[in-house]
Amino acid sequence: MDDLLNDFLAETAELLAEAGATIVAWEADPTDRERLDAIFRLVHTIKGSSGFLALPRVTALSHAAEEALDDVRRGKRTADSALVTAVLSILDRLSFVCDALGKDANEPAGDDGDVIDALAQVETEADAVAEPEPETEPEPESEPEPEAENREIRTRRDDDLQTDMQGWRSIRVPLPLLDSVMTGVTDIVLARNEFARMLRESGANPAVIGSFDRLSDSIATMRQSVSQMRMQRIDKLFAPLPRIVRDLAQDLGKKVKFVTSGGEVELDREMMENIRDPLIHMVRNAIDHGIETLDDRVAAGKDVTATISVTARQSGNQIEIMIADDGRGLSPDALVAKAIGARVLSAAEARALSPKEKLELIFRPGFSTASQVTSISGRGVGMDIVRANLEKIGGVVELRNEEGRGLTVVLRVPMTLTIISGLMVRAAGQYFAIPRGAVREILLETSDSVRIEKLGGGEIVSVRGEQFPLLRLEDVLGRHRDDGDDADDRALVLIRPGQDQSYALSVAAIHDHEELVIKPAAPMIMATGLYAGTTLPDNGRPVLLLDVQGILAVSAIDASEAGRAHRQAEEADAALAATRDATQLLLFRDIGGRTRGVRLSVIERVEEVPALALFESAGAIRAQIGDDMFAVHAARLPEGHGTVKLLRLHDGQSVLCYPIEAVIDIVHLPDVVEPSATEGLIAGVVLIGGDPVEIIDPYWLMEQHARGPIHAAPRAPLCRLTDDHDGWGANFLAPILRNAGYRIAAGADDDEAPDVLLCLSGDESACDHGTDAVPVIRLRATAAAAGPDDETVYRYDRHALLEALSRRVGGGRA
Amino acid sequence: MDNLYLVARIADTRVALRSRAINSVVTVATPVEVPGAPPHVVGLFALRSRVFTLIDPHVVVGLPPVPVAAGQRVIVVDVAEHGYALLADEIEDVCFIEAAETRIAGKLMPGWARVADAMIEHQGASLLVVDPAHFVTIPVVNAA
């Protein structure tokens, strides 16, 4: 029985949350039959289940709502806002009763006559105006689900509620079960690693290792699927918002249109919980403080109905949630005045603030919106809490303010809380993880571009002219350096914990990158402010994840980038970066297993795509990445269904993907390069760490693919060869011109007007076509010009010829 | 079940722990230190893909900390959805104690006074009944 009740409660809570949004949409358009049907089905379902479970209050409430809604469906009543309000209060009462049920498993005693009567009262008033519509009687479209059947895992079509939602099916699984699956998989991964280590040490035969590798691959796939199970559509977060907007707008006498988009974006369940309150708070704030009163809106020449939009989108490794309103925006001066009033800022400090810093005042602790507290937003959640909450999960808050025209708050959160990419570092003889997303750059302390200075007891570091506060991880943690550390290994991790903040963290050594499953640490450990959680990497020894923001607070340094001496250094920075990049080589293992290198500067990024994203078309392999297609340098499609790593080479105009197996390292390109004898993929060979490494020639690579432009190239200019009597033009000249990006037409067999005429005979009269509109270049057979006015070009002077062509055409790719 | 107790020596004192508060008793390898954590936090260790926080009861009651020996037994408890383990000097027995818990007579060290709930008579000796959760949640006595 308990299971039945729990299922009922969970499902009802979910249905009620989603119903709020549907009802508000229905109120906006009472003729919307689909929504009405959806709400009707909802209360019908609740009534059915509650009758089975013997919950008289729930049954009575849902019955009253069902009756009223059925009357609307039959055309006996019209849907007006009074009715909607009455239905909403029934739903509210239902949630209240269900909450109480969840707490002590008994329906609380109480009288629901008030809300039920309210609904009936509306009814009598409405009866006077209601005009029965001659509509056919619809039968309830869905019966309540069979209750006696398997209630452990119930399938529920999501489009029961909203027919426009896509038709995927979902099943309800208890969260503990899901967690135990995840724990199980993590255990398997740990066991696999242990086993792999033993296999290696025992020198097992290749067949055993081969089949172990297969097992290992499927475990990796499974781990991935399991982490996807934790994901949930952000729709769930949006569902209660329309209701909140509606109620609040009504209370405040404002008219608000509320739109959401991007509900299909998926987010980790735990992450959802963390942004639920901030999101609701932002929306409330927007209505309460952002949107002007009706009079003010009219005076400002705005539409009386304000618009608030909530948009989610995925950008790279982050989810971006934008809450935009078209209200009055923030006034920096008013904020300053208030901050001074609230004593979080002195007048002298205020004068030193930039406009942006003035806006950021709303994030200061103590800067509450208290002076204007209404019952609505005085919920004790300040913007400082919102920001703190987001930062706790590695997110940031950004304000885009247009005074008088609206405010957009952007919340950016990392895509998952539970699995993040972490950088493992060592300090004081143990390992720590740093969230990769916060790492800007990693440098060796011994690097030429690093200069460390002691300054009044503290340390700062200049990296290519840019200054950062320097923290040593051992000092932060209150530990001593480990004697076993090699001073040459000490590295600086440049960390950007939030917007416009950065600092350098010095660690004893950089270990590697790992995908880490992060779990919260015990409260007394979190309370140190130094750690954001714990993780269990593959070796089975727990590792602490550093809280890059908390470290700042604990060390009490100002990591704000404002006012740091780095602007004048930017040029030096760029120049240094250029020379550095030019000599850095990315080492990788290509598909054939060979170690090769390519200059780092031509790599735009390394991309990992599913093998299915690669396809063959017109004899060339291409990859679809996002909305773009790129050429791939590969002879054939990859086998299997895993993922493929692609180096993205970028020449400033086009992109070429080069499939690789793995990135090995980034090294300095040695000065001695043994050039290869022939032109081709390999530009030369260098010795790196004693091993020969082939260097890819990006010029040649790009050249191979440049002729098959995927993005529509500008029309190649047409060059007509005339007086080509001996075929020299077609055989010798045309290939060069084609390479240079011209199309070639010979003779007069083409109707298209050429962009330029190439006259292959020096004789003036020979190609007198009389068309002045087309520029003409004459070629002469002799190297020496006939005189200073001679505009003809010697036919074997390739450079002059191409130059003349591009000058005449004003384009071409010469 | 209610009168099933784990009798152990923790922080140099024989105590009885109510068995329903206890998850399991395991042995640990060297824990991973947590720099900056309160002194009673010995470190972290993993047990079946869960990370546990190891607590030194000595520190909680105001004694100097003891080093962790490899293979030392710890008492695993769950407090507020987090896993903890208490270092035990010795695990004696799990047994039913028929006697009733009685009010603590006599004056305890301040540290013990804060973690002990009651006393119980077992095999001719008085044992302190302690709630393992107290070792986790109670602030550490400042070492004088």
Automatic annotation (TrEMBL), chain B:
One Pfam family here: CheW
Entry-linked SMART domains: CheW
Ranges of residues in domain CheW-like: 2-141
Highest taxon of the lineage: Bacteria
Record field: transmembrane: none
Official protein name in the record: Chemotaxis protein CheW
Organism: Sphingopyxis jiangsuensis
